[in-house]
Records
---
Amino acid sequence: MLYSLARRVVVAAFLSCALMFASSAWACPFCSAPSLTLTEQLNASQAAVLVQWSGGEEPNREKSFAGTTNYEVLEIVHDDSGSLEKEQVLQLDRYRAAQKGDLFVLLGTLSDGRIEWSSPLEVTEASYNYMRQAPTKEAATTERLAYFMKFLEYPDKLIADDAYGEFANAPYEDIVPLRSVMPREDLRKWLSDPQTTPTRYGLYGLMLGLCGQEEDAEFLKNMILEETDDFRLGIDGVMGGYLVLTGDKGLDVLDESKLANRDVPFSETFAAMQALRFMWTCGDGEIAPERLRQSMRILLDRPNLADLVIVDLARWKDVSVMDRLITIYNSEEYNVPSIKRSIVRYFLITEKDSTTTADGGVPEHVAKAKEYLAKLREEDPKTVKAAERYFFD
């Protein structure tokens, strides 16, 4: 059986989420993490100044000259070199066209006593003040996020994108304490607005789940159940927020509408799977482990997801599926190398379970895993060897 292009595209699109679930920092699991934010760059620099463009020398191709650009220092944010002064003119290599008075921030690092400047960052007065007034890196992450939360949909796109970036890079555990001051009504408005950047739906859905009330649960449910054939960016975060707000009751809805329903697009089912992973990792027991395993087991009926599901069930110590996996291994419908390797990895993980019985013996599921592995090594040594080669517990 061949995997569809749709599966490959969706799995790639959600890969960043999977990597975040594996991260020790547990950054926002439904956010598309950007590069360093403005304040992170500012805090990492050893020199930072607000400047205005004041001219320069244009390039000369005949002389292989890239030109120069002059910037006048208006304000010094910080300067570890102690060499900068207001009204000082800084000359940077390469000509950069602009208008006199255009504002830029220059960020520099010290090298052999000299400041090496990065590319100028064009700013407005508003975006500069946003950077300048942000809490320093010494402040607690939750305190910093409280500041950035006010700018999530700010009219200046540079500011709004950067504020989102702060949340995308923040540990989930530092977002949770803000639930009592989250802008609940604004979150609903942003989630309803087609002009909202789609990549932000995941964060806003999760935040609404953290701070929401009963009517917000219905709002999120309706958003999740909306019929669509499209790939919906951020719907996994909306589902995650819905589960945070509703627990088992919400999971019943996802079971019926996304996990067991084969008529929905693959991307919707995969998003629900991501929401399950989120609750297992970050849900703080809101939904019992066995209840989450129960929902994940539904996806064993989906060959196009089975390889991913099996490894999750192994790490979640779901030993109830062992006999079924051997049946799947020999099934024509699941005759895909990646599924077979995942089943082998399931048994490799299970046999390493360090728990013991009351009398200090080997648990039944560990013994059975060893037995099944021995059987597979005899019947299909090539697959077992391939699975072991890239096995990381």
---
Amino acid sequence: MDEAVYWYALATVLLFAKMFATSLYQGFHRISKMTFKTPEDAALAGKAPAQEELPQVQKASKAWSNDLENIPIFLGLGVAYVLVGASSGLAMWLFMLFTASRYCHTLCYLNALQPWRTISYGVGIVCMIIMCIQILVALF
């Protein structure tokens, strides 16, 4: 298996695990506090719907939204990176650093850690910019 493909596949699985963990985090807080905003979920628990989501759920939702703005772009760039045969030597660094930055971003979001959240976000963006450059170099 090509080295870049290996690191891309690993990053993809790790990013899925991170996003799934964010969902579990939301569910844990809703269930442990028996607080549900959605009427059907509240009814299932025998509760009245909450006026607003729990603060932990709100933060996790914002982290999830940020993931949805960044991870699909990374996944698309990763496929292009592998298909055009961009630098295999950089693949591990770019794919794993992006993945680590997304983990850090979520942890910083959930724990209100600035400027670390912004730094983590920036690291991920820099990885994707370098991926774009590597893709263009491989194409031309």
